[in-house]
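A further point concerns the way the authors explain their paired sequence and structure data. The central task, working out the structure tokens from the amino acid sequence alone, is never made concrete. I therefore recommend that a typical entry be quoted early in the introduction. An entry of this sort, consisting of the sequence and the corresponding backbone structure tokens, reads as follows:
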Amino acid sequence: MKKKNLLFVTPFFPSFVRSDIQLLQETHAVRINRYPWQHKALAPLFFFLQFFSVLYHIFRTDAVLISFGGYWSVWPAVFGKLFRKKTLIILHGTDCASIPELGYGSLRIPLLKMACGLSYRYASDLVPVSESLAGTELDFDPAIRNRFQGIRHHFPAVTTPIHAVHNGFDPDAWPFEQVENKAPGSFLAVMSAAQYRLKGGDLIAAVAPSFPEYQFTIVGMDAPETTHPVNLRFVGKVPQAALARLYRQNRYYLQLSSFEGFGCALAEAMLSGCIPIGSSVNHIPAIIGNNGFVLSKKDPGMLRQLILQLVNLTDPEKWALNARRHIIASYSLAFRKQELTQLLHGHAKQT
């Protein structure tokens, strides 16, 4: 059977976008539309060029899939609507939020919010990676003034159907050996420098001195210029193989985000046998399930108590195995592929 043509639009290629492309290439002839939108000064030029590129390809495609809402999603959504092409926008988090206190969220920028709103209005379906991106109330971080976030809060007039489809993961890419290979008292977190406060790096720095016998590691950023605890080390950006090795070497994982679209690193760490502590925001508690602990407030004292509970768990091997089994059972690549394919060619229940 001849594969249907799919126009895949993305501003960049994080691992979860590459995964979606690989999944959809099994059932579609995928043509990728991508410009380096991170160069903000050139965004007007890319917007102009994309108009003609999408217009040319829209007649040769059966459906359009856009990853992230933004300037790049406007023309694909408009032309998809105009020429009656099924058009999905996968939403990952920043395109559903406005949190200026943490410098986070595309929707805090008026022109970018306008582009997102127009795109969401004309798309056939909106596909957030968790139900919380449709609408959620944040009460974890007291620094956040606007506790209400999500598509329905920021765009109450948009009536486009919303279908949450969780991210999926390949267990073979994130192997688990055994707890004995993990250093006792070793804690890991993943974040970029721009995400330091958003993902709780400041909270980790606050509690690390209370546990001088434990090692805390943050991957994805270099050490900040400000002073930090001696038992908190920073590892810059690393390739996937090195990250998988770090997951296997560390016994515990910290996902202390004030807002989190999904929590891919958390799921990867749990596949690798890390026992987690996560914040009580968005989809993080569902990812953890009964296989770790959930921190209800961004409070150093409460985190210290959870860390003490974590390191005193009996049978950590069982906890690690259960964490891996939970992710395998709940977030499979096969299910994500099935759901996306159904949305592109059929129907699904609205969130």
In short: The mean pLDDT is 95.
